[in-house]
Amino acid sequence: MSPYKAVAGDTAGLEEALARVVRLAGDHVGALDSGMRYMAAHAWVGGGAGPFTQVMGDQRARLQRAFETAAGQIADRIRALGGHAAPPSLSTPLPAAPSAHGGYAGMDVEAMTRMVADLERAGHALPAAGGLLSAVLSSAGVSAMPAQQVGDVGAWAAGQVADLRRRLTLLQRRPDGEAATAAVLGFGLFGGSAPAPGTIGDLMAAAAAGDTSALEKLVAAQNAGQDPTLAARVSAWWQLLDPAARRRLIDTAPQLVGSLNGVPAATRDSANRAYLAQRKDAIAKRLAVLRVLDESLAKGIIAADTWRRMSTRREIEELERQQRQIEAVTESLAMGGVNGRPPALLLALELGGLGKAAISFGDPDKADSVVTSVPGTGSTLEGIGADVARAGTLWDQASRSAPHTKTASVFWFGYTAPQLDAGILRADTSVASPHLAQAGAGPLAGFLDGLHATHQAAGTPRFTVLGHSYGSVVAGIAAQTRKGAFADQLILVGSPGTMAMQAGDLGVKQVWVGESPQDPVADLGHLPLSGGRHPISGVLQPALPNGPGPFGTDPSNIAFGANRFVVSPTRVSGFLAFTGYDIGTHSGYWNDESISLRNMGFIIAGRYDQVTKLPTPKQVPTPTPLPTPSQPPARPSSEPVASPLPAPQPSPTPPGD
């Protein structure tokens, strides 16, 4: 007789244990079901909702498997002793997964609050249930591991509660009194559940602890423009960061904080102005030292070789250039706060080389309409005055077009623009090559991500990007990396192209094009510079005369499919007058009282019925010429036969003339 063969009465204790496990499961196996139902009902949509739902679903499945494993072990023991017991099914129906993905779309705060309360109950109940289950399994002589798993699920639920409750409180009433942004709602509620939290999450944690190198890596990642969710995650991280930690980062690395997309505009302005003042003072002190050294070297007071003298002169020249850049930025900021304009905000600053900056008239976080202007060829930081003035003029015109709409006009110069003295045939820096535009598209896309992320949702804002000259190539490439999420509309003026074949390829709701008939740069879209690069030198080669332009279809071409607004022609002057071109028209789209400026103001304000548009000609089929009396009618044929057009005949003279 087998030692495990026993009378039925020997299994009674195990059967009672199995019944207790089933009762415990009935009370607790659905502890996370309500949370799954809330998520399935779109209590929170987009942002980190999908990853959080997945994590909670995994914990729910782990809980149910633990109870099923516990019951299965006892059932196996009963059968081994000759009894009868079928492993029970202790799972509950799984609610449908949420259907929305991508960026933040909405949240039901009341439903989320109830979910947090349910998680709190699960956090208390499951560890207790795990203790009871452990006792039952031990008495039945089977592994107590399932009980540990039940307790672990409870610990996970409890671990969510304190953080979620704190975040919900912040979301409903932020300490600074401002409304919560969509980024905070989308990513701040469940910070660890944002897509791919690994590397970026580690950088944010290190930066919060004061690691400025981590902050520098975050800025580098945003400038690559590869992660469309990064600015939203930065926004949530920054706004939920302890105020003392924010202050430390601003004091330690103001330029990095000021450059970080996702940080509120007012904070970026404060940090960048602090950096501007620091650099102004530091450069002045360093130049004083270098000039004394240079004079001593020149007089032979200090012995030096040629290399040391040249090195000193180069450093002096670079610092003097940065002084000019600081002066240009200071003068540009002074254009705000006058004649009804709002104060200017400094949203980005990089000194040295050609330099980079972003300046806004009005706070883009609070505006109903935000227009971002991207300048073109020849742009430098020390020469930004004219371009910043145009951004101010756009604010003036858009505000006149819609006086009750809060507008922000941003000048963005965050890329290396081609310079005319760099040589037109150099593939890496030529104005006839898309290379620099491709490099600048990532930073522009990241900057727009930041404007979306920090905008305080008081309504539905209108985002416009205006690309001028080569800046329209940058804007066109950036738009194609963020289809449907870059901007609501593009305005292209003096544009040679966007690297798109049709307006629909840009992924925005509307594309508007303004082109002066005398603008030679805009007509680069017609030039045959698409023959590729020489395999050895890398320079651009000419193509066939009728080939496409170097930047895709000319936006002013009807085939491109954009809305075209009227730009008044101007009187041609200068040495190019005989060609019909005038280079001055390339910068004349913002001229006071011009129809192009009025049209741009109406577009930015969304008053499309006021825009003076160029008509789109309808294609009229060419009539088939009638045969002359001396020609017999053509016979039907499967192949078309070209018939000669009849010679024009003079009209008969009316009687009396």
Automatic annotation (TrEMBL):
All residue ranges annotated as the DUF1023 domain in the record? 355-527
Q: Name one Pfam family in it.
A: Abhydrolase_8
Q: Mind telling me which InterPro entries this protein's record contains?
A: AB_hydrolase_fold (IPR029058), DUF1023 (IPR010427)
Q: Where is this region: Disordered?
A: 613-657
Pro residues composition bias: residue spans: 618-635, 643-657
Q: Which residues cross the membrane?
A: none
How is this protein named in the record? PHD/YefM family antitoxin component YafN of YafNO toxin-antitoxin module
Species, as recorded: Nonomuraea jabiensis
